[in-house]
Amino acid sequence: MGSVVVLQGAGSGLHSIGRGDRPSHDTEEIMPEARSWIDRLAQRMARWRARGLSGDWVVAVSGGGDSVGMLRVLHHLAPTCGLTFSIAHLDHGSRGEASQADAAFVVELAESLDCPFDLGQWRPTRAGHFAADARRARYDWLIEVARRRGAGVVAVGQTRDDQAETILHRIVRGTGLRGLAGMPRRRRLADDPPIDLIRPMLDVSRDEIRAYLATNGQPFRDDATNADITRTRARIRHVLLPMLARDDNPDVAAAIVRLGGLARSSEKAHEAQLRALNWAASVDLDRVEIDREATRALPAFLRSEMIRSAWRRAGWPEQGMSARRWRRLARLARGGEASGVAIGGGVSATTEGRSLVLRRTEPDRPTEFDPIPLECPGEAVIPWAGGRIVVGSESGDEVIDRDRLVPPLIVRSPRPGDRFEPLGMGGRSQPLADFFRGRNVPRDRRALTPILCDQLGIVWVVGHRIADRVRLTEATRERIGLGWNGFERIPG
Q1: Is the peptide bond before 450 cis (omega within 30 degrees of 0)?
Q2: Which residues are CB-contacts of 91 (< 8 A; sequence separation ≥ 6)?
Q3: In what order do the strands lie in the sheet with 387-391?
Q4: Cα separation of 69 and 109, whole Å?
Q5: Which of 5, 58, 241, 420 makes the best surface tag, with the fewest CB within 10 Å?
Q6: Angle of helix 252-276 versus helix 160-173 axis, rounded to 10
């Protein structure tokens, strides 16, 4: 049957399971310890199909053990579950030859399974935003693939360990009950036509998947960046969870996931309560009216969530709303008077009889704030944006060519007529208003976006993009990082 081909390249990371021959895909060897979780997965897929879930899937495969294990199990179960699927791999190009070897490995695996496959390529354009941009690009591309192939499902390979890491990561960053619930097993990814995102392996541990692959002699790839413990997620995976498992609870990952399940159940119960309270909130495009008498006796958390639910029904953006702001609204709904109180996001609150009325306005012209000088290196608090901008070390949200700066630097708010040469447009300029529209920045947030400028114009639209003229090049001699640290600024 031939031998496993070891793909050469820097940091190839090919896992050989110990069998010299390529694994046979005609039959899967299922050990007793794997039978139980595979049977559970088959039962869940049968329930999904009975409830109308599409049988045409796109299976996202990175080449790592989790996604390769998912692919092999789905390939085994497909005939009995009525599934047809294709394989998709997006090459992020972030690891040079190793990324190319990952793609070649997935292509070879797809061919050995006789499965249709799609191979995409994506390259980052913003320093300091790789993880978020790569995730967004991956899902956007998977939606395109699903639409092109007429598939109603995209399957990804997150495991029980990924769920535990996600929940811990959110706890570290600060989260509420919704975040504590972790990743959903199934959610709508796109509409028209409907496409669902499925995580079929979310109850299965990484060790169980590796054991299954070993039994079937299936190699997989390993991304060396996952071991970089300078990253919070990697420290949780390789330091914190192993320490907790060694010193406190060998099943700590399962315990965390159970906590997430309880949080999810509580969230669903709260959602049912909120639906029963929909009558207490009148919602319009630019106005939300809360019946204070109906909500006064509610617990503060539920009152806050009811207001948040009405806010969402109105279609208002939540980016600028913090837990403190929601609590403030909950206090106003319980008692106290308000007359044109600014909440944030262009929303003001007033009390009118027994109602709390929220109004959202879009000003005709952005409010301008006094420019703030900034040393290089140095830092400055930007009060209207609720954060601090830092120009300093060789790392940050963005990294630029220091020699391209023309001091002095200032931080200001956007002005009518501003033009910008965003990175990635080859030095071509565009109105800043068009840039904001292209980035889907809500109108009420545009006036609060800090703009870092030097004598030649805009250097950085904070949180979005640097100017093309300050990008790093082969001629760069000195790098300097730009950073943004946000914090809550709403008084009272």
Answers
A1: no
A2: 99, 100, 102, 103, 119, 120, 121, 122
A3: 378-382, 387-391, 479-486, 398-401
A4: 12
A5: 5
A6: 70
Residues 17 and 218 sit within 8 Å (Cβ to Cβ): yes
- Single pTM value for the model: 0.63
H-helix or E-strand spanning residue 49:
helix 32-50
Residue burial 91-129, b: 16+ Cβ < 10 Å; e: rest: bbeebeebbbbbbbbbeebbeeeebebbebebeeebbbb
Cα–Cα dist 104/110, whole Å: 10
E strand map for 423-478: 430-431, 451-454, 457-461, 465-466
What's the angle, vertex CA 251, arms to CA 249 and CA 254, rounded to 5? 130
| Residues 239-260, mean pLDDT to the nearest whole number | 93
Distance CA 377, CA 190 (A): 44
State phi, psi for 60 to the nearest 5 degrees. -80, 120
Is 95:143 a contact under the CB 8 Å cutoff? no
Q: Is 435 helix (H, G, I), strand (E, B) or coil?
A: helix
Q: Could you report the per-residue pLDDT of 422-460, keeping only the tens digit for each?
A: 988 777 888 888 888 888 887 777 888 999 999 888 999
What Cα–Cα distance (Å) separates residue 269 from each residue in 191, 256, 263, 281? 26, 20, 10, 19
CB 448 within 8 A of CB 438: no
Instruction: Name residues whose C-beta falls within 8 Å of residue 221's C-beta, 6 or more positions apart in sequence.
Output: 12, 13, 14, 15, 62, 63, 64, 68, 101, 102, 105
The pair phi, psi for residue 419, each rounded to 5°, is -120, 160
